[in-house]
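Here we describe the complex-level prediction in full. Unlike the single-chain runs in Section 2.1, the two entities below were treated as one system.
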Amino acid sequence: MENMFWIGIVGAFIALCFAFVQSRKVMSCSEGTPEMQKIAKAIREGANAYLKRQYTAVFKFFIIMVIVLAILAFTGLVSKFVPFAFLTGGFYSALAGFIGMKIATSANSRTANAANESLNKGLRVAFSSGAVMGFTVVGLGLFDITVWFLLLKYVFHADANTVGTTMVMFGMGASALALFARVGGGIFTKAADVGADLVGKVEAGIPEDDHRNPAVIADNVGDNVGDVAGMGADLYESYVGAILATFAISTAAGYGWSGMFLSLALAVVGVIASVIGTFFIRTGENADQKALLKTLRTGTYIAAALAAVAAAPLTYFIMDGKMGIFVAILSGLAAGCAIGYFTEYFTSETYKPTLDLAEATSTGPATVVIGGISLGLQSTSAPILIIGAAVLVSFFAAGGAASFNQGLYGIGIAAVGMLSTLGITLATDAYGPVADNAGGIAQMAGLDEKVRERTDALDSLGNTTAATGKGFAIGSAALTALALLVSYVDIVSTKMAEAGKALDLSLVNPPVLVGIFIGAMLVFVFSAFTMSSVQRAAQSIVVEVRRQFREIAGIMEGKADPDYAACVDLCTKGALKEMVMPAVFAVIVPIVAGLVLGANGVIGLLTGVTVTGFAMAVFMSNSGGAWDNTKKYIESGHLGGKGSEEHKAAVIGDTIGDPFKDTSGPSLNILIKLVSTVSIVFAALIVKFSIM
Amino acid sequence: MENMFWIGIVGAFIALCFAFVQSRKVMSCSEGTPEMQKIAKAIREGANAYLKRQYTAVFKFFIIMVIVLAILAFTGLVSKFVPFAFLTGGFYSALAGFIGMKIATSANSRTANAANESLNKGLRVAFSSGAVMGFTVVGLGLFDITVWFLLLKYVFHADANTVGTTMVMFGMGASALALFARVGGGIFTKAADVGADLVGKVEAGIPEDDHRNPAVIADNVGDNVGDVAGMGADLYESYVGAILATFAISTAAGYGWSGMFLSLALAVVGVIASVIGTFFIRTGENADQKALLKTLRTGTYIAAALAAVAAAPLTYFIMDGKMGIFVAILSGLAAGCAIGYFTEYFTSETYKPTLDLAEATSTGPATVVIGGISLGLQSTSAPILIIGAAVLVSFFAAGGAASFNQGLYGIGIAAVGMLSTLGITLATDAYGPVADNAGGIAQMAGLDEKVRERTDALDSLGNTTAATGKGFAIGSAALTALALLVSYVDIVSTKMAEAGKALDLSLVNPPVLVGIFIGAMLVFVFSAFTMSSVQRAAQSIVVEVRRQFREIAGIMEGKADPDYAACVDLCTKGALKEMVMPAVFAVIVPIVAGLVLGANGVIGLLTGVTVTGFAMAVFMSNSGGAWDNTKKYIESGHLGGKGSEEHKAAVIGDTIGDPFKDTSGPSLNILIKLVSTVSIVFAALIVKFSIM
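The structure predicted for the assembly as a whole is:
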């Protein structure tokens, strides 16, 4: 078995080929009228410009980190591969984000144009571009892991334990990149969105996506840099992190190469299952919202079922018939699907919670806000119970009662199971912003009413899949973080023993307890940072849009074009400036806490961050999602419809929900993984120099 | 030393005598004009009626619990004293709340009338009534503890360990009562407040505290049942809980009777220090806000300093010169003061955070809400770092490095230190609602402008002390919960060993980890419950007030009286109905989680609840406080003043903040202590019947 790791390259090849085929399919479609092409070009250029500047800024951070890591490597505190792996992790993650965004910004006008022909055509184009993102992430992730693995094993002849404990440090590059992508992209998209809404919709009274709004292009750019590139980087990190965590635990669990191979094989099988799943996504012309959702669900569920079926023989042959591990994999897959379902329940206007929230608009904005917060807080119950159940089932099924480390391996492999069909899950998620953009283009280019109805149907579906996608992203981040946590414990226990320090992870050990407190604090303060960042960046957009309305004559009559680029530029500057503080905070706190509280405290901190961050992320995403859909529900003619007092209250709720669901909430996914990867890399330093 | 525990009775006697003297002082003042007497009577009757019905409802719950506890006692799963102690704990807590509220509702009109004479007179009356509450809580708490102690020691001849581990179970009665008082009172007060504001202020455009508003009496009643009786029960529980927790740990730490005696002696010394502190609270006629605040602070700080000074010889003689324990006590006292300071920094309009928040009103309600949430999230950093530091300092100073249990005793005694001067701390806090009510009465009775200026000054100060008081209540709840947590571990470790189960509190033990997750969930869901309770109850008030405005002719012209009693009645019904679900949830979840996850899981749950609950409570209290003061800041003429768009945005923020700071936030204080006391009482049951 141990010489078959090359299948990782095969899996990567399949995923990347499929992504290539899908991208050709998208690019072969027509971009539509010159007007549409012009708008699409503006969005594309804005997105490219932002991403270039973001990557330039991130590059500087990477240079600093590589120097730090090189010093650590030089003094023997990390493996000499870490600085290089840090770079490749960041590079592939960035590349995946770049490709995904490139295709998304090419697919938006093509989707709008295809919707001109039929709903099914529109769906296929948008979904194909989502698939490019999904499979690129998976393909590059597998490629990066496998190449490093083969290098370490065959060129440097490392043993299984060394490979595992070294490679788990490689996740930090992807984590760091993801942080900037999620936080920066999240700030960009919501600053543009909030700014455009506050002045355009509320003050000037022009519709959403109106070409007279100077921030409209920035808003569309934001969908791509935040929801496509940011989401891609987020899940790239979870995907790689989960696999590497099982690598790290495998030897301690007594499975050596086999345990690692199962993880990789499962990922490869997931790629194939995802490819097959995509073929089931198609729809008839008269499909309604439910039918559209059903076809996307069908594809995802078929992929999950195929992966589950294939996992049985894989486990049987690779792990010598230890079918408890198969149960662990199943629990991960099931948890992913279940979290998606409950996210939908709490955020979709077809269910009671959001309908109740809509009723609360009748007593004004205050009650809508209270109701939405209460809904979000309440909605944490299901995902937490699901993840809790998955942890217990995977731990005990994998033999945790008899062998603790085998149980921990079970938790890791459950995370890999959950993420194995990421190709298709991410495709349905990245599809959303493309459909959203297509709707915007159709509106701005003044396309036929019929086309807009179709793009609206696609867009509305995109909102639902975006919400469930977020639930999946959070759930997988939590499970990945737990897998990383247990691998950290594994790594640090050896180091502590060597340093003659005691590993005491008991809850009543004060450094552990204080670490948990600090972890919770990190989550709260980080959320505060990202939220006030959006507020500050949005405020600058508000000022600029007001200025343009005032100073550019004829803008309101459609006689003069607004200066779209100025808004894009402002968002870019705002996002880049504002992303620094949270990022630095997220990297510094675990290191400083570690130096004071020691490794025991760090493990407390990781636990505190994971638990509180998970709950907080679910709360924020679901509150935001429910507010968004409440607004949409009213806009579709209920409770007084557009322009009513109820609608105004709902718009306020939605505006508050914007940074909740698209900036602070998703950024927490990164935080909980990043603190783990940072801690893993700096483990030796902490153990050596900590004062406790 | 061990035969000197009767000093607890002396301490109780001093406290109760002082409370009695203060109450005579209040009652000797005149109630003012017949109009004022009429209003005060309506408030008093409403408050009495509510409290009676609340206690009746709680009595039923207590009956059920006593039966359950009797069964447990009969089967040997708890000590036979527990059912009785459960009753006395609940009884004294209820009695303290009743007395405090009785005097508060008698002092409101007297304060207004005294303010007619001079500001100093007004301050003295309001403060005296606060002191009645503060010293009654302390006196009854000390009395209950000491009587039980003497009974167990001298009548039943129990040894130190038995006394400690038995008495720690006695906290549950006070916990359960506090839950109902805080949650029920919190729902009552905010339903009335929100309801009165939404219709009266926003829709009908009449000022706050206007006698034409049918909910105005209910609003004033709410201040008493929520902020006086609720707050008193909360701190009664912390006070008793902290002392009992040190009793429980003392023997394991090797201190036996001495460790217990230090805790009690510290409390007695704190009573005397508090009494002395009150004499420093007085003011000149032309005192401004700052001078008023300074005099209250002076009193509190003098009391804390006296307690600190006295603690040194106490520790020296009782603990045989182990002065590390003195350092632990100091860390508790210092933490209490520091948390108060930072709470003020984040919520008072004299500092940057709230001033920045006020600026955000210029872009509408959405940005105010985002800004307030972000401020609250950010503000968790200081209290968490302070509590973290207090835990580490008290643990290590008390000898935690050499003896783990002595370190844990240090954490317990730090909590006692923090709470030792509760008499005066609670007095400054309970003073707030009295001043608030006095202002309302002055407004409703149409007193002279000069009187209202004075009551406004007192009220405004009351808002600041209420905020810092909340900070103190949360901080002490967290430290008490940690002390209870460690005493739980101590108790359960013996029981687990007897049952042949392994106590494994390692963070990576899945039941522990899942327990932490469930704990965090409990906090989020409990907050959701309390918040939506307020919303539902407020909605019913909105409907009723609208009905009265519509149906009672001449109400707006002041020709007909509104039906105040109907609103009081609705609030009562709403609060009693809505408090059941959160209460049951808080009691059931730790028991069910324990039966599934075992004692290890329970300890995880307690940790998760304490950490997340602490952060969440600080967040909610401070967001709410900052919104409140933003509104007041604008109303005092800044940023456009009353009636401006900025003011409207601030009112929305304040309305959202109401349940944050007065219902959900403070209720979490109880939650984190209640789950501990419930778990302690049900420990034997859990150990015996849990499936893990």
